[in-house]
Write a structure and sequence with these properties.
With 998 residues, the chain is mainly β. The model is unreliable at 1-37 and 114-119 (pLDDT under 50).
Length: 998
Amino acid sequence: MNTLQKTAGAILSLSLLCGMQVYAFPDYPSLRGQIIEQSDICQGVVKDTNGESIIGASVLVKGTTNGSITGLDGDFSLRNVKKGDIIVVSYVGYQSQEIAWTGGPLNIVLKEDAEVLDEVVVIGYGAVRKADMAGSVAVLDNKNFKDQPITQVADALQGRVSGVHVENSGVPGGSVKIRIRGANSISKSNDPLYVVDGIVRESGLDGINPEDIRSMQVLKDASSTAIYGSRGSNGVVLITTKSGKAGVREIMFDASVGVSNVYKRYDILGAYDYALALKEVKGIDFSNEEMQSYQNGTAGIDWQDEIFRTGITQNYKLALSNGSEKTQYYISANYMSQEGVVIESKNERYQAKANLSSQLTDWLHITADINASHGVRRGGSFASGKDNPIWIALNYSPTMTMMAENGNYNTDTYNSIASNPVGILKLQSGETMTNVFNGRVDLRLDIMKGLTFTTTNGVDYYDGKSYSFSSKRVGTKSGMGNNDTYRLMLQSSNNLTYTGSWNDHHLTATAVYEVTSSETRTMGITGNNLLTEGVGWWNVGMASSRDANNGYEQWALMSGVARVMYNYKDRYMLTGTFRADGSSRFAKKKWGYFPSIAAAWTLSNEDFMKDVSSVQDIKLRASYGIVGSQAISPYATMGLMSATAYNFGTNSNFTGYWANDIATPELTWEKTKQFDLGLEFSLFDRRLNFSVDYFYKRTTDALLKRSIPGYVGGNSFWVNDGEISNRGIDLSVTARIMQNDRFQWTSTLNGTYLKNRVERLSGGENDFINGSSPAAGMVDYATIIKPGEAIGTFWGYEWTGLDEKGHDTYTDVDGNQMIDGGDRKVIGKANPDFTLGWNNSLSYKNWDLNLFFNGSFGAKRLNLVRYTMASAEGNSRFVTLADAYLKGFDKIGSSATYPSLTEGGNNLQPVSTKWLENADFLRLENISLSYTFPKKTTGFADLRLTFSCQNLFTITGYKGMDPAGTTFSNSSVDVDAGIDMGAYPSPRTFTFGLRMNF
């Protein structure tokens, strides 16, 4: 394996323990009473100094291919072994040991070795000894999330890494928002850069099987991200996947089945109460027969029952690996099917991976890796908008029938003006199909001692197809659509690295030349008024009118990187990085330059600390650097023309062209400068470990898109202007609370305090940028970008209660005796001040228990579902929320929160503190209980049975279904964040799992 893979593999052992020396006691009489001595069978157990079993350690008879790996109890058994044979015990990140077998069982204890600690961290374009680390890098290996049945990689990051905030749309296979130390950009994406085995993935985390991950590293400060230059401003997530091991055969099969339900619902009016309310408020009368049927439940619709269901998730994984001393392989496959808790929503993934590495000669090593996935996602659109079927269903009248006599879906005559939500989900859900392929070939040449050259060449291929259909059985017209997006990215990274040590000095120098190119092709076709709906979206020829479009874009990036890491006596560390990027996205100022520097001081290695035994591994870190962003579309600076039609006062249209955007050839890189100060230390003989970082990053020359007023020609253009800052504290504490032969308890708590602030916009302190409307015609823009406030700040009215008529009242901010736009002010923000994750792993003999908590504090949610359910506004003409009628002003008077339904003329303001709710929560994200039957018991494999529950409970004051839920905006998930307009609910899931290691 190449250096990157060797060191990446070592990370897996870091959370088990930190290196060791091995002591063998060949005369130990028995091993848990399970081992039966035979003359040619060498048996034993491998543990650490705390009595924890070491799983997956390699045990090999030296000079042969006769080997095995330790099982879930750390046990092993080798046949055809002779007395005097040398047994080699090794594990990634541990010192290899050779033990002469004398005929009895071996009890092997692994002890701490500080030298092994120095070789565990994967960073950009290489690996580094932990002693040399001066930047802020969080390491997450697969042991951290092995007890949670995750279906996508983003779930593994949620709450487990300080400085990382994850929001999930909840939709099976849907969007995920990951932010590392806050949002830097207003107009463009704030997603981090994803790098898998050295290759950048434009397709993000799609198509990755969590089982294939060996470890993840999150690069947070500028010292660690600057090596990725123009693409590192939002942080970097490095993923190292599994590979085969020499002399070790592994066969693993894992199967799990989960059952999901919506655990919290709105309290809505039943058909009988709704009919009474309609009669009382609007004078709509129902017959006695109808009222009786509503009361006894033989008529009427519970729309939550109609759209929500029990979802079933199935996940099957198979992995095979083996290898000789020179060649190793790893093969895996995965099938995952996830039925959502909303009808007709489903996601399927078919995935396979193969990795082959071989030492071809003494100086040439090759690694080839491919990963392919096919995904199919079905379901409606659950983004912000009046077409969100969850929002529609919660506002639909319960006093109606589902189907008309002609087989069409009925529409609401009393409440919502939208189409039938069940019809939308069943007939108009659509389908998205994705094919993702990633491959790479690494060639490593060992030129001389300490000097290596590695060329890594890879491909990231994505093909996404989406299909849509609308039916006259649901709406007023039929239609179809087919869209295809093809993207191919090629990357070649050429890395020359020198590593050398002399006396007390250690030096690693790296030079990289990299070229990346990407090509995207799009094509779409739509048709309206289909002659027949029988073929769905498959025959555009059936459409009475058709429209088509296609597009093409290409960009390239050329980069040069230099990095030097210096260590003196394992006390003083210095890292300097410089990267130059040339991007085809910019017209004139194509090149950006991104330097960084970091220093660290390990105080615990100083002579004056030798007699201090109460504190270990004290390390101070500081770094400063500049990273950038080129996150504009290709050709965006060129002022492209677009077609338009004009009739010149005639009946015929003529095609012409006008400027779609204003040319901005002077546009250049957005830059983010970041300072980080960190402290690490351990107490009580390393049983309590602390890491704390203060960070401050400031984005300058922000890439902003500004609009020109229509009265002077309209259009938009890009500018480098505006500044955004993020400052905060990352904290991580790991405690080995109990460690003995029978019982172990490890607890990790991490938290992040973050303050995001827009420092300046191009127009000065009075400038502002409005967010987009979450529902045009019903709700005006809800958020604002304003100097002094955070991205995602709510801009609305302060609700002051109900007046004597039962009307809503608001603060008259400008004092003009009326409520208008001048009375808006900052009323909250969508992003939390503090997030935390708390992971607990407990083991007793063969039992394992995991409890993982996740929390968020300081965020607000604009609950537009509750607003429309309680307000009788134009799109939802009457109330469906039970309290809005039963506890409204008309029922309980001045103590009510909900206005009068009988008094007209109310001033309804959806963007107000009345509907802006506290979204603080603490959730038991996962609890799992496992029992392991060792191979010696089953006779064929280590067998692990697991029962787990996700979202068992949530402590929150939020009145919606999920305080963490949000309907992602189609415009900007950061600017328009924190809006609940039918957010897909996070379900409670019970999962049963079976895992076999043969």
